[in-house]
Amino acid sequence: MNYQFIRDVAGSPIAELEMGCETFSRWFSEEIGTDQNKIDQVLVAIVQLQNKQIRQFELRGKEINLSMDADEVEVRSTDLDYAEPEELPEGTELYDQESMAGCGLEDFTRVLKAWNDFVA
Questions:
Q1: Number of structural domains found in the chain
Q2: Which of 21, 47, 54, 85 has a CA between 20 and 30 Å from the CA of residue 104?
């Protein structure tokens, strides 16, 4: 997973991840930002998953939820929870490329640690 961290004109950290990982960009930038408690909570959960102390972990956010298990990490916009596809016209598909993304736990851990270093 390729990434770049920058700061906007106000000095706020922004994560820019490769195409297909836009939801991770938003999760890092908007959901956890510089909140060290949330970052630490996720880092502790990663260790617990790797040591098989827990089977999965979820962190609910304002707009994006994080789900992890021992192999995969997924971020998903809370907007998807409210979509009701049965009310859409037949043949209509929802565009969700920027509303959810997934990756392996190892890749996510590497990016999270780099983000932690960047915002510290």
A1: 1
A2: 85
